[in-house]
Amino acid sequence: MCGIVGYAGARPALGIVLDGLRRLEYRGYDSAGVAVVCEDELLTEKKAGKLANLEKVLSERAADNPEDCAASPIGIGDGTTGIGHTRWATHGGPTDRNAPPHLSPDGRVAVIHNGIIENFAKLRAELEDEGVEFASDTDPSAPRT
Fold it and tell me: Residue 20: which of 70, 76, 82, 71 has the closest Cα?
């Protein structure tokens, strides 16, 4: 089973979203990811495996770029709007590529959802016939540019 957490407010969102995802760990999942708006930029990080894997990548990201908006003491920025998701694979394997969130081709929209999109194969096939390439193998996968 998966879980979704969102926050929009005055405080940095990432810590709040990660705390919420930790509270959902008992539900079971195979990957996790977050998206945070920071200075009009949508920053994302996602990782297969346990939440600790995601938190490690976020920590490394902060250490690598301490002056960047993408870096702060908590790892992805000080943006005050964010979403997070723990995923249980139903379509596409538990990989970094398939972990949520999925971004629109222009990188301005992040998509997460719970449940199964029943007709995703038909929709995907129609879009692929039109030349659209996808960035993952999941049912909410976003097209690539």
Answer: 82
95 burial class (0-12, 13-18, 19+ CB within 10 angstroms)? middle
Which two three-digit tokens encode residue 123?
């929709």
pLDDT for the residue numbered 92: 77
| Residue 6, CB-side half-sphere exposure with 13 Å CA sphere | 7
Angle 88-93-97 from CA coordinates, rounded to 5°: 100
| Strand extents, DSSP E, 79-137 | 81-87, 102-103, 110-111, 133-134
Q: What Å distances lie between residue 138 and 50, 51, 63, 141, CA to CA?
A: 19, 19, 31, 5
- How far, in Å, are 52, 103, 131, 138, 142 from residue 145 at the CA level? 31, 11, 11, 17, 10
pLDDT greater than 90 at residue 18: yes
pLDDT digits (tens, 9 = 90+) for 86-120: 988 777 788 888 888 988 878 888 888 777 777 87
For the chain, state the CA radius of gyration: 15
Q: Is the pTM of this model over 0.85?
A: no
